[in-house]
Amino acid sequence: EQTNALGKILTRANDQLEMINRMLQATQIGVGELRVTKQVVNLNELLAGVRSNYNYPTGKEIRFHWEYSPDLPFVRTDGDKVKHILQNIIANAVKFTPVGSITISVRHIPRLGVIEFTVSDTGVGIPKAMLSVIFEMFRQVDGSVRREFEGVGLGLYIVKQLTELLEGKVEVDSEEGKGSTFTITIPVKMAIDDCARYT
Predict the structure, then answer these.
(1) Are the CB atoms for 163 and 85 separated by under 8 Å?
(2) H/E stretch holding 69
(3) Tell me, what's the pLDDT at 9?
(4) Please, what's the b/e burial string for 10-37 (b: 16 or more CB within 10 A of its CB; e: otherwise)?
(5) pLDDT < 50: residue spans in the chain
(6) Is 47 exposed, middle or buried (0-12, 13-18, 19+ CB in 10 A)?
(7) Per-residue model confidence (pLDDT) at position 102
(8) φ and ψ at residue 4, rounded to 5 degrees
C-alpha cells in the first residue's frame, strides 16, 4: 500500500514538474533563446537516463518495451535537446494510454547519417482531422471529449520545435482507438575519434 501511494505521489509530482518544464521551454522557444550546443553523446547512456524515469509505477497498467542495440554509437548532437524530445514524446504516450503498452525504439542509420527514434503506444489515438494541428502551441485533441486527459497543449509543440532546431523531422501515424506512432529523425555525425577518450 505504501509503494502504491508513493507511486501516485511521484506520478503527480512529475506531472507538475513536466508542466513547469514545458512552459519554460515554450517560453525560451518563443523568445528565440534556445541554441544548439553539439557535443559527444553516448546514446546508450542518454537512453538509460530517460529510461530511469519510468522505473517507478505510473499509476496505469502500462508495459514499457525498450528496443535498441547496446552498441549504439557515440555521435555529435545536442544531447539535452534530444533528451527533452524523447521525454515529451514518451510523457505524451503515457498520458494518452490508459492501459496497454508503449514501445520505444532507437536505431542508427549510417547511410543516411541519422538517428531514428520511434515511440508507439496502444492508447486512444488521434482523429485524422486533428493530425495537421497537433503540433501547434496550446492545441489539444478534442478537449471536450477527452477531458480526462488534461494538459496545457505544449508537449508536441516543443517536440516539433526542438526537432526542427536540430534540423530533423517528426512524423506521426495514428488511428483513433488503436494508438499512435511518433517517429523523430535527427541528423548526427559520428564521433569515432572522441569515443576513444571515453574508453
Answers:
(1) yes
(2) none
(3) 73
(4) ebeeebeebbebbeebbeebeeeeeeee
(5) 143-149, 196-199
(6) buried
(7) 97
(8) -65, -40
pLDDT at 34: 72
Q: Which three cell numbers stand for residue 25?
A: 521551454
For 66, list phi and psi in degrees, rounded to 5. -110, 120
C-beta separation of 181 from 116 below 8 A: no
- How much is the CA Rg of the chain, to the nearest whole Å? 17
pLDDT of res. 199: 44
- Residue 77: which of 43, 28, 111 has the closest Cα? 43
Reduced to 3 states (helix: H, G, I; strand: E, B; else coil), residue 194 is: helix
Q: Are strands 99-109 and 61-67 parallel, antiparallel or unpaired?
A: parallel
Distance from C-alpha of 163 to C-alpha of 32, rounded to nearest angstrom: 15
CA 109/CA 102 separation, integer angstroms: 22
Output the CA angle 135-38-182, nearest 5 degrees. 30
Single pTM value for the model: 0.78
Segment 82-140, tens digit of pLDDT: 998 999 899 889 989 999 999 999 999 999 999 999 999 999 999 888 888 888 765 55
pLDDT value of position 197: 46
Task: Report yes or no: 124 and 99 within 8 Å, Cβ to Cβ.
Answer: no
C-alpha cell of residue 154: 505544449
